[in-house]
Amino acid sequence: MRLSTPLKSNSVKIMLLGSGELGKEVAIEANRLGCEVIAVDRYPNAPAMLVAQKSYVIDMKNKEQVLDVIRREKPDYVLPEIEAINIDALFTAEKEGIHVIPNAEAVNKTMNRKNIRVFAAEELGLKTSKYEFVSTYEDLKEACDRLGYPVVVKPIMSSSGHGQSIVKSPEEVITAWEFAKEDARGSADELIVEEFIHFDYEITLLTAKNDNEIVFCPPIGHIQSGGDYIFSWQEMEMSETALNKAKEIARKIVEGLGGRGIFGVELFVKGDEVYFSEVSPRPHDTGLVTLITQSQSEFALHIRAVLNLPLGFEFLTPGASAAFKADKDSYTPEFEIDPAVFRVNSRFIVFGKPEAHPGRRMGVLLVSDKEAKEALKQAELLIQKVKIL
Ligand SMILES: Nc1ncnc2c1ncn2[C@@H]1O[C@H](COP(=O)(O)OP(=O)(O)OP(=O)(O)O)[C@@H](O)[C@H]1O
Ligand SMILES: NCC(=O)N[C@@H]1O[C@H](COP(=O)([O-])[O-])[C@@H](O)[C@H]1O
Ligand SMILES: [Mg+2]
């Protein structure tokens, strides 16, 4: 492995398309290996920009603007960090010899619920919830009736629960339709209607892949509210049968998508049955907990995978994370953190987002303990001691 110093002509150049909290940790790991980091996002002073060597503010959905920064910088690797990126630009960049992580087609498949669901369920034969795709209100109504209530309605392109709702009765279909249209983070031209899975629990199985090996992190349990994560813990206790099924699904999906990097494979578990839900071809928000539990966090593993370095790591301790979300608007967000939060076994990470809005994730609390359950209890308690002024 050849490594240099950032900004030298021979340094490895990494471009992050999306510069939020996950990208910031990736940038820090890349910097530690002497890589040069170019952070790109839709607004200035995004978290990863605060630690990158250079940054650009562009319209991430505009093909010319995305291609322009790539052509100008000629990075060795382009790492998509968000879902809402112009995909044609990635295909073109790849054709021009740029290494997109994990590859443009994998990004294309995973950014669109229709592509990834059809690929997973119909091509790879993975078990998923029943689903239908609709583009008119009438079709949505019929699909909900056919699948039977409750159902989950989601825009085909979105993330962090934006535009997503659980529909419990025919009367609620109209609200779900309107919400999907107004709150989608990508495109709500089409919606997916999914059978509601009454799972016992859900996990993220972080799976790292380089050209030679695939490694699995211990499963991460999590709790979601409104389609967005609020607590996660590692390791989630599960039966050997369920864990083996989870690994088998994860292996199939990452081999199917190909390329190098870390993948967050989202799975629902009911008894020993495991359902594939979706996958991020990049670090996962629920995986922030690995910053305190693993010798190599998901961010370090991502960079190692990108650079095709060995992926070995140790699970050091059980732990938990609590997302800190703002409850108000602020253009000069300031935290008030009770010193009690800073225990021997806990940390609070401020992402550094320049603006706070109700529901926006601004930081994360991490706790380790002998048992994940105990760490989770402490995380639930300590997160209440953080406020935005
Ligand atoms: N078919 C389903 N049955 C039961 N619960 C579901 C179903 N689909 C989604 N959920 C719940 O909603 C959460 C968010 O769904 P999903 O992961 O599809 O949305 P998302 O917007 O992509 O979120 P993120 O970007 O944070 O991963 C899931 O983690 C799960 O808790
Ligand atoms: N579930 C996906 C996820 O967690 N993505 C993370 O959130 C950022 C966007 O935050 P913002 O919406 O507050 O700008 C993204 O840049 C990424 O780091
Ligand atoms: Mg998800």
UniProtKB/TrEMBL annotation:
Residues that coordinate or bind ATP: 113, 154, 159-164, 194-197, 202
List of residues binding N(1)-(5-phospho-beta-D-ribosyl)glycinamide: 21-22, 81, 285, 353, 360-361
PROSITE patterns reported in the protein's UniProt record: ATP_GRASP
Pathway: Purine metabolism; IMP biosynthesis via de novo pathway; N(2)-formyl-N(1)-(5-phospho-D-ribosyl)glycinamide from N(1)-(5-phospho-D-ribosyl)glycinamide (formate route): step 1/1
Function text: Involved in the de novo purine biosynthesis. Catalyzes the transfer of formate to 5-phospho-ribosyl-glycinamide (GAR), producing 5-phospho-ribosyl-N-formylglycinamide (FGAR). Formate is provided by PurU via hydrolysis of 10-formyl-tetrahydrofolate.
Similarity remark: Belongs to the PurK/PurT family.
Record-given protein name: Formate-dependent phosphoribosylglycinamide formyltransferase
Organism: Nautilia profundicola (strain ATCC BAA-1463 / DSM 18972 / AmH)
Gene name as annotated: purT
